[in-house]
Specification:
Pfam family, one: DUF7128
Shape: globular
Protein name: DUF7128 domain-containing protein
Order of helices and strands: EEEH
Radius of gyration: 10 Å
Number of strands: 3
Number of domains: 1
Low-confidence stretches: none
Structural class: alpha+beta
Largest sheet: 3 strands, antiparallel
Length: about 45
């Protein structure tokens, strides 16, 4: 499930598995469907 949070006067959506953040909820949902719940290999 994607988690929404306010940061820097914006709403960010994060993957509950790995914590990666997105500014578009649909992007976060698509990522979460494919996420293997490991830490991202790139900087957030």
């Amino acid at each position: 499930m994607v988690k929404a949070e306010e940061r820097d006067d914006m709403t960010w959506y994060s993957c509950e598995g790995c914590g990666l953040m997105f500014d578009v909820e649909d992007d976060a949902k698509r990522h979460e469907e494919r996420c293997d719940a490991k830490e991202p290999t790139y900087l957030q």
